[in-house]
What does this fold into?
Amino acid sequence: MDNVLPDFTHEMAARARGALSVVGVDEVGRGPLAGPVTACAVRLDPDRVPKGLRDSKMLTAARREELYLEIVEVAEVSVAHASVEEIDSLNILRASHLAMERAVAGLKADHALIDGNLIPRGLGCGATAIIRGDALCLSIAAASIVAKVTRDRIMVDLAQQHPGYGWEANAGYPTRAHLEALQNLGVTPWHRRSFKPVHNILYQVISVSS
It folds into this structure.
């Protein structure tokens, strides 16, 4: 499967069914303990597809940055987020879908190709869920790259405001260094309180102080 490169099969199928504006959609940031969840919708021009598009997880950070610049130059791109507060109040799945809905709304698409096996309920257009879509579909691959680079940049900025957690390297994911910092430095406003490691630390503090 990893040797399969993404192509335009799914975009062409949607157009054959009458869709005029087809976008690929992906999100990043479901697993981290801190920071927003970020989604991206991309409408590619079939005649101006950057070479080397593939699942962002298969690329080096440097190559993702290069492709990000190419994508935003030649494609229509919409990026959106769901906040830490929305993640905690809605749950991470619904918040990630909300970010996707916002990203799609920015491009006024009439058909969205969604990475995964679930279709957000508030898209406002037709949609197809594609398992491993970032590995199979060029538009979704492009969206995965833009979402990843955008969120990584956010976490680098937040790392400067809250040093010690290693967000510039771990992007908020629960690495050993991040978990140790959480124990030693405590919870920041950017930590997701509904996530168990963060919740447990807050509960410990409440229990000790009460």
